[in-house]
Structure formats: structure tokens, C-alpha cells
Amino acid sequence: MKKVLDELQQAIENGETQIAMDKTKVALNQGLRTDTIIQTAINPAFKDLGQKMYDGEIYVTDVLMASRAAHAAMYVMEPILSKFSGATKGIVAIGTVAGDLHDIGKNLVIMMLQGSGYTVIDLGIDVPVETFVEAIRMHKPHVLALSSLLTTTLPELDNMMDALVEQGLRSQVKVIVGGAPVTAEYAGRIKADAYANDLFEATEAVGDLVNNRIGKYTI
Ligand code: B12
Q1: What are the structural domains, with CATH classification, of the chain?
Q2: 46 C-alpha to center of ligand 1: Å?
Q3: What pLDDT, in 10s, does the model give residues 79-117?
Q4: Closest C-alpha residue for ligand 1 atom 70
């Protein structure tokens, strides 16, 4: 079982889209759970790529190829992760903040939320504060979820919180923040309502926010 996960990780790192899809199918057929596949193959692939990128061993184009392969693997798992049918548990508007093009983690969070019964409005990547504000007015989400993968775009989270106050929207929506450089401490400082480290924590946190509960990841 470990073999197929190693092969999937390798296929993602090499940017081999078809192999990544095939290995994901094999892993699922072997009875491996989606969370095992994500935690044991997809996450380590990007940890490795991040290190290699940092060390200058690979280029952005290599990471883009890898991202495509990861998206393909996620596409295979999508029907399982998003198989909820029933009344919506709540509405979540989500996006990657302005200046930031990373969306692999955000998309995993979306799949998990959808699979857990939430209606998700995906605003995409590089989303300016104005677009988030517009979406809150239009869709009236229970939760606004903000993703930032770059330290340089972290201030966008802060800007967003300020905009919510300025636009009189702060009491209408709960805010959860996440992404590799975001910490619980940072989330507390900008007065967000929750911080989560991965897709599983994010889903638990959204449940607490929608139901006005204090939970492990609420602030
Ligand atoms: C893939 C990748 C890219 C791809 C992105 C493709 C895509 N479609 O997303 C490309 C090639 C485009 C890219 C570009 C760049 N990247 Co980049 N990239 C990465 C890499 C290798 C992996 C990120 C990833 O997808 N991880 C896998 C997913 C599953 O994990 P995740 O994103 O962390 O998401 C999880 C959690 O964070 C959380 N989460 C995420 N979002 C949210 C939101 C909420 C609300 C919640 C609750 C939780 C949550 O849940 C997710 C699932 O569990 C990281 C290194 C790393 N190890 O993180 C560098 C990294 C993020 N990139 C980096 C850099 C520097 C860049 C560039 C500036 C490089 C350049 N010189 O051009 C550009 C910036 C482009 C831009 N303006 O955004 C740096 C950032 C350094 C920093 N601290 O700011 C990193 C850390 C690499 C490094 N070690 O230097 N990158």
C-alpha cells in the first residue's frame, strides 16, 4: 500500500499528470482513504518541492507541472470528497488573497467542505478585498475563508478585516484564515474568528463558526 503512495508522490513531483491520476485510482481501489492519500502522498510532495524550490534545485515551471499533476489527483478524489447530498449546512465564501496565486490547498479545503455539506462560493485566486466585500453582500455567507500562502500577502488578511469593519459587515460574517505562513497568533492579532492548519481542521472550525460554538480552532 505504501508503494502506491510513494509512486503517487513521485508522479506529482515529476509533474506526470496521467501517472498521478492512475496511481490515485489504484490507491482508492486498494481501499486507501482520501485523507491518507492527501497526508501521505500529496502533502509530502509539496513539502519536498517547497524545499527544492527554496534551495534553487527546481524552477517555478517544475512546480507548476507538479501542481497540474496534483490537481489531476484531486480531480480523481473529488467525487468522494464532495459526495454530500442533502440540505446545506451553511454558506462559505472562500478565496486566495490579492497578490497570491496559490490554490492547491484552498481547493482541498473546498472539496472537504463540500463533502461535509457546505455550499462553497469559490472566488478563486488573487482576490482583491473589494471582490470579497461584494461577495459577502451578494451571497450573505455564514463564513468568509481566506487563504494566504505568501508572507508578502499576509497583510491582505489584515486589510480584509479592516474593510469588513469599515463596510459595516463585520458582525454579519465569521472569518477563518489559513495557509502555510498564517498562525493562530496572527489570526488572533487581526481578530479573525478562527484559524486552521489543514482541510480537516478547517472543516471542524467552519462547523463551530456556523453553529456559534467555541471549538479547538476558534479564537
Ligand atoms: C505549489 C507552489 C507554487 C505554485 C502554485 C500553484 C497553485 N496552483 O497553487 C506556483 C509555481 C504558481 C508558485 C508560485 C510562487 N511561489 Co510557491 N509554492 C508552492 C509550494 C511548493 C506548495 C504549496 C502547496 O500547494 N502545498 C500543498 C497544499 C495542500 O498545502 P497548503 O497550500 O499549505 O494548504 C493547506 C493548509 O495551508 C490549509 N489552508 C490553505 N488555505 C487555507 C485557507 C483556509 C481558510 C484554511 C482554514 C486553511 C487553509 O489547508 C490546506 C490543505 O490541508 C510551496 C511550498 C510549501 N511547502 O508550501 C511554495 C511556496 C508557498 N511558494 C513560495 C514562493 C516564494 C513563490 C513565488 C514567489 C516564486 C517565484 N519566485 O515566483 C511564486 C508566487 C506566485 C504568486 N504571486 O502567488 C514560497 C513562499 C515563501 C513565503 N514564506 O512567502 C514557498 C513556501 C516555497 C519556498 N519554500 O520558498 N508556488
Answers
A1: 2-81 (1.10.1240.10), 91-210 (3.40.50.280)
A2: 8
A3: 888 777 778 899 999 999 999 999 999 998 998 898 889
A4: 60
